[in-house]
Design brief:
316 residues, mainly beta, Porin, twelve-stranded antiparallel beta barrel, four-stranded antiparallel β-sheet, globular, plasmid
Amino acid sequence: MRLLEGAIVTLLASIGSTSLAYANQWYTGSLVSPSGTTQPGVLNVEPYYSYNQPLGLFDSRGGAHPASHPIQRMFSNSTLWKYGILPDLSVQVHTIVDYEWKHATDHSHGPKTGDVPVDLIYRFVRPDPKRYIPALNLFVGMIFPTGDYKKLGNTEDGVGSGAYVFRFAITEQSTYTLPGNHELRLRIWNWFRRAVTSATLVDTTSYGTAHGFRGRGQPGMSGETGFSLEYALSQKWVMAMDLARDWANGSRLRGYEASGRYVNKIGSAGTDWQIAPAFEYNWNAHWGIIVGSAFYFAGHNKNIQASPQFAINAIF
């Protein structure tokens, strides 16, 4: 324990002085939490790069089991594009490119562009730190079905749902000055997603169907609730941590298999808990980088996995 405490003290000392006040603290934002609006005429671009490695599986009762082989891995580029329209209104587009593979078996036929969420972000409460009033934001948007989901060469090509999905969120952000004049930023959020259309399914699809299938599918409702903490070690260095719970109802599947058998079923619901520690480094108020990893440590009907990742935050 003393060795751990000594290592932490050494790290803090090497990163920067703890005796300064950082009135204009620089942040990149944590790995998981959604951010709020940006200033009018300002473009915020934040590309994420992540690698997903399954380590096991949570069963329907939450028990942990080893991962089955071959293990499906994924490399992903996920980029947020946010532009300020008015002082309290921004628009955000989220582009995703995935590449999936299994060792010595199937793999994606090249990088695949997934479904694209587009959101309007409205700040309906402006922050007032002196009165402990946080910023409150409302996200309202749609996920557009741009990703491949039917007539797939193999299951690794399935990166879309084929359905339009409405989504909204309420987020909170507040900042507090702790002893030693270190800033602590808190974010709390709650996402909800619901499909408003269904997808026409043909042959091999992202819903788990095989060649010869004809029918329709629809993703189940899903959401995420979480909070993040960002503690400023110095104006440039920040420690970040997210804790979030994800949930998803099973997808609905109806149609006929190649044999003529009729299928009408709803998949299993699932939940997971993830924690995502990270370090942020900011060159200035406009450029920063965050490096860390998400770990999925509890849940049911979901993978146990680690997802190391980094992102670059740029403001123009």
